[in-house]
Amino acid sequence: MVPSRLLSVGPRTVFGGVGRWTRVAPGQLPWHAPPRLLSASCADLSKHQEPPRKKPLSEKKLKRHFVDHRRVLIRGGCGGDGVSCFHSEPRKEFGGPDGGDGGDGGHVILKADQQVKSLSSVLSRYQGFHGQAGGRKNCSGRGGAVLYIRVPVGTLVKEGSEVVADLSCPGAEYVAARGGAGGKGNRFFLANDNRAPVTCTPGQPGQERVLFLELKTVAHAGMVGFPNVGKSSLLRAISNARPAVASYPFTTLKPHVGIVRCDDHQQIAVADIPGIVRGAHQNRGLGSAFLRHIERCRFLLFVVDLSEPEPWTQLEDLKWELEQHEAGLSQRPHVVVANKVDLPEARAAVPRLRARLGPSAVALSAATGENVEALLLRLQELHRQHVATELQRSRQPLRW
Ligand SMILES: Nc1nc2c(ncn2[C@@H]2O[C@H](COP(=O)(O)OP(=O)(O)OP(=O)(O)O)[C@@H](O)[C@H]2O)c(=O)[nH]1
Ligand SMILES: [Mg+2]
């Protein structure tokens, strides 16, 4: 505590460190007491009662948040060197070679991990652990430990344009760079015609590769829609996922996968991806690069905002953007979800929507939960169809 009599004097004298007195100007007090009346500062506060608005992010910044591809330079660990030395013991003149081999360098392995959600945690370069050099008395060096790089499930590994691995199952591994072999000690070169070799070899350098990692989310269903139509709210309503919901566009910047548990103990994975805008294929909004996340989805959920005028035009635009990204993508089995039916203008638009898109469109409200069961039934039906088709083709259906 600063003594109170020191507070009231003109050019003030206060503590300026431990046990020192310093002269400071009135505006430079070390504690945060503005030299004003309390009532004046209250009046100031009342002027600023509105909470500070969040600055809208620029398109460039938005893209920086969204990490679904990475270029990585990976080097395996170097092998340890072999050693050249001779056994040394009193009264034993020619003890023979006893230089041990170096340990092998550690591999670098990419491992699919369900806990990892994006490639943002993957660094741009990795170096594996080196092997230890060999030792005296024929001791081999310790091998380098394996370095695991944890990547999200659904990561595609490319070298140049060639796909070298597809880590689509949890726990799947790919040896990205092999560690170098350890060198040989001079004991290794002992032969009948050479009883005292001095040769030893150095450890080999580890493999070096430049790999491109590309994340393609694996889920049964992919949600596609314009920003702010309520995709994340819908995922919250039907699954255990808790993506952020807010009334500004591009709240979702990376895919979220929620698991819908059905009555028949089936689990359906639904992916919520960032919103698409008109002209996304020309790199508008967040672009259409994240549409790669629905490439692997077996069926689609087209989400439209029913409170907007002519919501069916949204569906046409969405299908157009999907076709621009990959031909035939919009033809996948799908269900049209018209959200925000709790709003009066949206409820009034239901008959027109049905006239345009047929009775299969599901009008619901993610906010109130109205008619969400109808969507769950449709999802179950689509899932059943997917399982049947995969079994017909003698393939394993996607399991979560
Ligand atoms: N009235 C009403 N509002 C809703 C409903 N569903 C979502 N909203 C509101 O719509 C706004 C956007 O919701 P989000 O779930 O963030 O929308 P989104 O499609 O995920 O948006 P992006 O992530 O930006 O693409 C929020 O203010 C929600 O409260 C609904 O059924 N009824
Ligand atoms: Mg969202």
Automatic annotation (TrEMBL):
It comes from the Eukaryota. One of its GO terms (molecular function) is magnesium ion binding. One of its GO terms (cellular component) is mitochondrial inner membrane. It comes from Acinonyx jubatus. Keywords: GTP-binding, Nucleotide-binding, Ribosome biogenesis. CDD domains: Obg (cd01898). This is Mitochondrial ribosome-associated GTPase 2. The keyword Nucleotide-binding applies. Residues 64-218 form the Obg domain. Residues 219-384 form the OBG-type G domain. The keyword Nucleotide-binding applies. SUPFAM superfamilies: Obg GTP-binding protein N-terminal domain (SSF82051), P-loop containing nucleoside triphosphate hydrolases (SSF52540). Belongs to the TRAFAC class OBG-HflX-like GTPase superfamily. OBG GTPase family. Signal peptide: none annotated. It holds the Pfam family GTP1_OBG. Coiled coil: none annotated. GO terms for biological process: ribosome biogenesis.
